Every structure is written in C-alpha cells, then in structure tokens.
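HUMAN:
Sorry, I am quite new to this. Are you able to go through these amino acid letters and fold codes? The numbers rather puzzle me.
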Amino acid sequence: DFSGPRVRLSGYTKADLALSYRVLEDRWGMRSLTVESLVQNLFDQDYEEVFGFSTARANFLLGFRAEF
C-alpha cells in the first residue's frame, strides 16, 4: 500500500532560455552549422515538483548542430 497523506506544494515560476545562431551555411559540404544554448532555471529558483525531491539548480548547456 503506497497511500499517504496528500501534500500541497507552494507555487513557483521557472524560466528557461534557449538560443541558436547559424554560424555557417552551405560551406565545406555542410548545409548549415548552428551553435545552440539552453539555460534551465534561469533565475536559480528553489522549488520542488515532487515533495521531498529537490530539483536542479540553474544549469547551462551548449552544443552544435551540423546539417549535411
């Protein structure tokens, strides 16, 4: 039995930001080369989606996308 008391968590606002920039187009055998970035939890909000389990702090991802 996994029943337990219901817990109501406080509300929160989380902001994410994604950007991409095309660096090359139709060069060196590639249709395009794009730099992509993602910032999750931009303002470093402290919140829980599930009671008792903390969420990730602000984090930054950077990558490239090549289309041939």
About this structure: The two ends are 54 Å apart (CA to CA). DSSP finds no helices and five strands in the chain.
